[in-house]
Amino acid sequence: MTSSTAGARPEAPPLVSHTQHPLLALLIRLHLYVGLLVGPFIFVAALSGLVYALTPQLEDRLYAEQLYTDSTGTPQPLARQIEIAQAHVGEAATLSAVRPAPEPGTTTRVMFKSSELGESESRAVFIDPVTVEIRGDLLVYGTSGVLPLRTWLDQFHRSLLLGEPGRLYSELAASWLWVAALGGFALWIIRRRRASGTRSKGLRHWHSTLGLCLLIGLLFFSATGLTWSRWAGDNIGVARAALGMSTPSVSTALDGEAVKAAGEHAHHTGMAMPVARTAEPRMFDSVLRAAREGGIDAGKVEIMPAAGPNRAWTVTEIDRSWPTQVDAVAVDPRTLQITDRTDFASFPVAAKLTRWGIDAHMGSLFGLANQLLLAATALGLAVLVAFGYLMWWRRCMPRRVGGQGIVQAMHKLSPRARWVAATVALLFGYCLPVLGGSLLLFLVVDLVAVVARRTGPGVVRRDA
């Protein structure tokens, strides 16, 4: 051995070998590209989701003055509470909804819309129901009514605070997360069979073991994240409607016109809900009483005035914990008769699963246990991405990857396997447009890498 090579480390084998089965080579290359190119987006989504999952208790403390009260006694009528809130905000804002205090010791939210607010934003005035003291005035977001701290975290998690263009980041992460998870699972199975019982060691072992432990959680994150994404979410909604699995919504039409109130994804899609120009405060007590008599029994409810003439008021249960209470009724303000209703018990299975999935994703379905499980999974996902990058750094810097790329591996598949792979790619690319567009980018990157390896200088050793 010469002095020039005596102290050199053995060259690590390339991640993808020319002698590997084309299907295995294709899976490895795709898994690698997803990790390298989409990994940063998944990492950011995981960490921001981790923080979001742990904020409800912090929010309770941070906004305790607005949310809670020590007053005891008989609550004042909603009309009186609303009048106090209206006097506070003046005529610049329009009364849009009221959320009565759900239990003793909590406050009533009187919510307003104005031209200065975003589509999903409301100005909430918090009223002590016993003393009618104003406890706070905050901006809240979406149908879940999250307060400023979680609103900021939610926007960062969804769009990096970049608005609609930024939502591509979270959709990209959700679109590829299930591919990375299932691809890693397939690689684990193939390698385990080929290894004849031997056990891998080091980072690959920890990476694969952690991935197996998180597999169900990662698929859940991906599926629920896609349901409210911009492009894939629209396609999912169309498919559910075509299959008759859409979430039922209460009709507010009083003249027979089938006008449906949108509700399921308002928190994440930013849909604006129409509000009436005027709403008599005294009507809120009467409408709520009619709804209670009609079976709306949840502590947490939201009362929305009619959006215009020949429209009903709505009273909707908003308790997303277990057991879920999201029944809704439409109440004719002239007769106080219930004109339409939706009951969660009669929802299609797909609608129930969607509701539960979204609420579990947000950490509200099972309370603290749900939050801790989300936090553990999100932290594990972040570590999984970090392990993947460390493996790449140690084994195959870009100029050392070697072997065949996606296009070459596809070319070496049998004609039938190639046709199946191409069909699956086109199908998912159409249903998940962000996945399809980024897959084209992967192919371009792969072709450039192949050309660079063929025309560039020889392989450079890192220890040279």
Automatic annotation (TrEMBL):
<feature type="transmembrane region" description="Helical">
    <location>
        <begin position="419"/>
        <end position="445"/>
    </location>
</feature>
<dbReference type="InterPro" id="IPR005625">
    <property type="entry name" value="PepSY-ass_TM"/>
</dbReference>
<protein>
    <submittedName>
        <fullName>PepSY domain-containing protein</fullName>
    </submittedName>
</protein>
<keyword id="KW-0472">Membrane</keyword>
<keyword id="KW-0812">Transmembrane</keyword>
<keyword id="KW-1133">Transmembrane helix</keyword>
<feature type="transmembrane region" description="Helical">
    <location>
        <begin position="30"/>
        <end position="54"/>
    </location>
</feature>
<feature type="transmembrane region" description="Helical">
    <location>
        <begin position="372"/>
        <end position="392"/>
    </location>
</feature>
<feature type="transmembrane region" description="Helical">
    <location>
        <begin position="168"/>
        <end position="190"/>
    </location>
</feature>
<dbReference type="Pfam" id="PF03929">
    <property type="entry name" value="PepSY_TM"/>
</dbReference>
<feature type="transmembrane region" description="Helical">
    <location>
        <begin position="210"/>
        <end position="228"/>
    </location>
</feature>
